[in-house]
Amino acid sequence: MFGTDGIRGYPNQGYFSPEKLVRLGRALCHFLRERGLDQPVLLGKDTRESGDMLASSLSAGLTSGGFSVVWGGVLPSGAVAYLSRKNDFSLGVVISASHNSGEYNGIKLFSAQGKKLKVEEERQIKRFYEEGRGVEGKGMGRIEISSSHFQAEYLQFLEEVFSGLSLTGFKVLLDCAHGACFQVAPEAFRRLGAYVDAYNVLPNGRNINQGCGATSPSFALERLQATEADIAFSFDGDGDRVIVIAPTGKVLDGDHLLAILALFYQRNGWLSSSRVVSTVMSNVGLERFLEQKGIQLERTEVGDRWVLEAMEAGGVVLGGEQSGHIILRRYHSTGDGILTALELMRVLVETGLSLEELLEGFRPYPQYLKSFSVSCKPPLEELTSLREICEEVRNRLGSEGRILLRYSGTEPLLRVMLEGESVSLLKELMERIGEGIEASSQLQGLGAG
Predict the structure, then answer these.
(1) What is the pTM of this model?
(2) What fold does the segment set 253-339+350-358 form as a domain?
């Protein structure tokens, strides 16, 4: 049911049929009552045309179990997390498939503290769902619609965090991916004085992430070069990640942002314990760069929830993922693309340095990432032939190289990351791994041969 980041799938199929969404809503009621929670549930969504059906069906299950639901309308994930914490909601629900294309949809859940639910909590919800649990005899909940009010609250939060920051004189290009950021991101930058050139702000329910946004930074790059803006930010569908394009045309991912913010925090005395948390996907170049500055990089498995858990356990204020999820614990409890973009603007204003100057000495190793379609997801350690190929690849990469295989938590894909000093070697080795994946009967659902 739950993958790396919530539940993901196709509307009217699997867990996302109306009947099963009602069942999930009732399971959530049981989960919340067991924790002594009885406040309303906040529900926000991105711009997908299936969002209303998912929201209505899930709300039917929640209200039938006695929980009122407040529809916040189109809101970024970071806004739902913040508002859940601020307004004492029992749960924050985001209807979104994040960076995926418009035919997908998904559900993300945030606790009353504005944090992604823990794995054990998701397992409990799944068990309640499978057992058909609900809440009887608690009356009926109601649905309240209050979209503009919550957008205003979130924008006020951003203004308070960045009070005193003036972006007057900056021309900022925003690619909002026809997604959840299309209204609040341009407004947030304008309120701080920036001249905003906003693109992909005309959602039609189907065009979210279509050739734009954080997974297609080439769109913003082309517009940046044509408009001579000072900087460009590309958000994904639910706005929890951001990719940056420098005026030179260089595309900066989460590793670059962590490098810049870590040094800025260190200089300001904010980097508690001189540590930053990221995942196994982060480039070894980031690790080397931070080591030279006296900062330790702690790695977790993929998923921003694991990053946050490690940050909280170690009292770390800065963490994130290479994909552009950045968690700024000084202000927030989850990844927030708009918050991250504005924090980078603060760095530019207060240091007076360019992005290239801020990244001086940061040399990422070449990485090659590729996703392969699979029909089944057997444990990787059981794939003897593929393991042998991977061992061969490790030997050829040498001590400075890395290989990482992991299944997507939301799609039928096996993701492969190779890292080393030679791009041509990485491409050659990726082809070898691809041949092994395609030849694997276990991965292709053809038996155990």
Answers:
(1) 0.91
(2) Alpha-D-Glucose-1,6-Bisphosphate; Chain A, domain 3 (3.40.120)
